[in-house]
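Extended Data, panel c. Modelled sequence:
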Amino acid sequence: MRQKAVLDTSFLIEHFRKGSVYDTFLNLNRFYHISFSSVVLMELLSGAYDTAEQKLIEQIKNNFTVVTVTERQWYVAGNVMLRLRKDKKVDPLRIKSLLADILIAVSARDIGAVLITRNEKDFKLIKEILDFNYIPY
Protein backbone atom coordinates (compact mmCIF):
# COMPACT_ATOMS: atom_id res chain seq x y z
CA MET A 1 0.00 0.00 0.00
CA ARG A 2 1.30 3.44 -0.92
CA GLN A 3 2.04 6.09 1.71
CA LYS A 4 -0.51 8.89 1.88
CA ALA A 5 0.65 12.37 0.88
CA VAL A 6 -0.94 15.80 1.09
CA LEU A 7 0.38 18.38 -1.35
CA ASP A 8 0.81 21.87 0.06
CA THR A 9 -0.29 25.05 -1.68
CA SER A 10 3.29 26.28 -2.17
CA PHE A 11 4.23 23.04 -3.92
CA LEU A 12 1.25 23.23 -6.26
CA ILE A 13 1.70 26.91 -7.10
CA GLU A 14 5.25 26.20 -8.21
CA HIS A 15 3.99 23.53 -10.60
CA PHE A 16 1.09 25.70 -11.80
CA ARG A 17 3.65 28.36 -12.75
CA LYS A 18 5.87 25.86 -14.54
CA GLY A 19 2.94 24.11 -16.23
CA SER A 20 4.12 20.80 -14.78
CA VAL A 21 1.16 19.92 -12.52
CA TYR A 22 -0.02 16.98 -14.62
CA ASP A 23 3.46 15.38 -14.86
CA THR A 24 4.05 15.98 -11.17
CA PHE A 25 0.78 14.22 -10.25
CA LEU A 26 1.71 11.24 -12.42
CA ASN A 27 5.16 10.96 -10.86
CA LEU A 28 4.01 11.37 -7.26
CA ASN A 29 1.07 9.03 -7.78
CA ARG A 30 3.53 6.17 -8.36
CA PHE A 31 4.77 6.47 -4.78
CA TYR A 32 1.94 8.12 -2.86
CA HIS A 33 -1.82 8.08 -2.48
CA ILE A 34 -2.34 11.81 -3.03
CA SER A 35 -4.89 13.74 -1.00
CA PHE A 36 -5.62 17.43 -0.73
CA SER A 37 -6.57 19.53 2.24
CA SER A 38 -9.72 21.60 1.79
CA VAL A 39 -7.54 24.49 3.02
CA VAL A 40 -5.17 24.01 0.05
CA LEU A 41 -8.08 24.02 -2.39
CA MET A 42 -9.39 27.24 -0.82
CA GLU A 43 -5.97 28.89 -1.08
CA LEU A 44 -5.54 27.79 -4.69
CA LEU A 45 -9.00 28.90 -5.74
CA SER A 46 -8.62 32.31 -4.10
CA GLY A 47 -5.66 33.04 -6.38
CA ALA A 48 -6.94 31.39 -9.57
CA TYR A 49 -7.81 34.31 -11.83
CA ASP A 50 -7.37 32.20 -14.95
CA THR A 51 -10.35 30.05 -16.02
CA ALA A 52 -8.00 27.18 -16.92
CA GLU A 53 -6.57 27.21 -13.38
CA GLN A 54 -10.09 27.23 -11.93
CA LYS A 55 -10.99 24.19 -14.05
CA LEU A 56 -7.84 22.38 -12.93
CA ILE A 57 -8.69 23.05 -9.28
CA GLU A 58 -12.21 21.72 -9.92
CA GLN A 59 -10.70 18.56 -11.46
CA ILE A 60 -8.46 18.14 -8.42
CA LYS A 61 -11.49 18.52 -6.11
CA ASN A 62 -13.47 15.96 -8.08
CA ASN A 63 -10.75 13.36 -8.67
CA PHE A 64 -8.70 13.24 -5.47
CA THR A 65 -9.48 12.65 -1.83
CA VAL A 66 -10.17 15.97 -0.11
CA VAL A 67 -9.49 16.13 3.62
CA THR A 68 -11.82 18.53 5.45
CA VAL A 69 -10.67 20.16 8.67
CA THR A 70 -12.68 19.00 11.67
CA GLU A 71 -13.78 20.92 14.76
CA ARG A 72 -11.12 19.11 16.82
CA GLN A 73 -8.42 20.04 14.31
CA TRP A 74 -9.40 23.71 14.51
CA TYR A 75 -8.99 23.44 18.28
CA VAL A 76 -5.59 21.75 17.91
CA ALA A 77 -4.55 24.51 15.50
CA GLY A 78 -5.52 27.14 18.07
CA ASN A 79 -3.38 25.37 20.66
CA VAL A 80 -0.43 25.23 18.24
CA MET A 81 -0.82 28.97 17.60
CA LEU A 82 -0.89 29.66 21.33
CA ARG A 83 2.22 27.56 21.95
CA LEU A 84 4.07 29.24 19.07
CA ARG A 85 3.30 32.62 20.62
CA LYS A 86 4.22 31.57 24.17
CA ASP A 87 7.07 29.10 23.64
CA LYS A 88 8.65 30.43 20.46
CA LYS A 89 7.76 34.10 20.94
CA VAL A 90 6.26 34.32 17.46
CA ASP A 91 4.66 37.68 16.67
CA PRO A 92 0.81 37.67 16.70
CA LEU A 93 0.62 38.88 13.08
CA ARG A 94 2.94 36.10 11.94
CA ILE A 95 0.84 33.57 13.88
CA LYS A 96 -2.26 34.58 11.89
CA SER A 97 -0.38 34.07 8.63
CA LEU A 98 0.50 30.52 9.76
CA LEU A 99 -3.10 29.42 10.39
CA ALA A 100 -3.64 27.78 6.99
CA ASP A 101 -0.32 25.94 7.20
CA ILE A 102 -1.08 24.74 10.73
CA LEU A 103 -4.50 23.43 9.62
CA ILE A 104 -2.88 21.63 6.67
CA ALA A 105 -0.23 20.08 8.95
CA VAL A 106 -2.79 18.94 11.55
CA SER A 107 -5.09 17.37 8.96
CA ALA A 108 -2.19 15.65 7.14
CA ARG A 109 -0.93 14.23 10.43
CA ASP A 110 -4.36 12.97 11.42
CA ILE A 111 -4.76 10.89 8.25
CA GLY A 112 -1.21 9.53 8.57
CA ALA A 113 0.05 11.42 5.52
CA VAL A 114 3.32 13.07 4.74
CA LEU A 115 3.04 16.72 3.70
CA ILE A 116 4.93 17.69 0.54
CA THR A 117 5.82 21.38 0.50
CA ARG A 118 8.15 24.04 -0.84
CA ASN A 119 7.53 26.14 2.28
CA GLU A 120 10.09 24.56 4.57
CA LYS A 121 10.53 27.70 6.69
CA ASP A 122 6.99 27.77 8.06
CA PHE A 123 6.53 24.01 8.39
CA LYS A 124 9.86 23.65 10.18
CA LEU A 125 8.63 26.18 12.74
CA ILE A 126 5.27 24.42 13.11
CA LYS A 127 7.05 21.07 13.55
CA GLU A 128 8.75 22.47 16.66
CA ILE A 129 5.30 22.38 18.29
CA LEU A 130 3.33 19.78 16.32
CA ASP A 131 4.51 16.26 15.52
CA PHE A 132 3.87 15.64 11.81
CA ASN A 133 5.88 14.52 8.79
CA TYR A 134 6.79 16.71 5.86
CA ILE A 135 9.12 16.56 2.88
CA PRO A 136 10.60 19.76 1.51
CA TYR A 137 10.46 19.34 -2.25
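The chain has seven helices and five strands. This feature is highlighted in the accompanying rendering.
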